[in-house]
């Protein structure tokens, strides 16, 4: 379960960075919203998987409410999932 969560968190972080960089650049600088549509759906699915897996993994990893809150907060911060992987999953 932990390895699946690590893969999902990595992919979620990459999709978020692509959405926030390429997607928004093409949308606002070039008036082409196709990249936002292309990156938005996979990011949304990965985001929901990240949240569900984090809640399921709480007991296995012995996270308290504060740790779970930080792990969930990392899903909405740029580069947050990479920090979370280093801080909470590398142990």
Condensed summary:
The protein is 77% helix and 0% strand. The chain has four helices and no strands.
Please provide a written account of the structure.
The chain has 91 residues and is mainly alpha-helical. It has one domain. 77% of the residues lie in helices and 0% in strands. It has four helices and no strands. The chain has helices at residues 2-28, 34-57, 65-73, 80-89. The radius of gyration is 14 Å and the shape is elongated.
As for the number of domains, it is 1
Shape: elongated
Tally of separate helices: 4
Mean pLDDT: 92
Q: What's the end-to-end separation, in Å?
A: 15 Å
Q: How big a fraction of the residues is strand? A: under 5%
Largest sheet, if any? none
SSE map:
Blueprint: H1 2-28, H2 34-57, H3 65-73, H4 80-89
Helix pairs in contact: 1-2, 1-4, 3-4
List its salient traits.
single chain, mainly alpha, DUF3817_TM, membrane
């Amino acid at each position: 379960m932990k390895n699946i969560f690590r893969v999902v968190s990595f992919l979620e972080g990459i999709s978020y960075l692509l959405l926030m960089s390429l997607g928004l650049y093409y949308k606002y600088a070039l008036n082409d919203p196709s990249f936002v549509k292309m990156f938005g759906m996979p990011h949304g699915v990965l985001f929901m998987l990240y949240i569900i897996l984090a809640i399921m993994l709480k007991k296995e990893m012995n996270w308290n409410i504060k740790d779970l809150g930080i792990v969930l907060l990392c899903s909405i911060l740029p580069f947050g999932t990479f920090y979370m992987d280093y801080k909470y999953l590398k142990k």
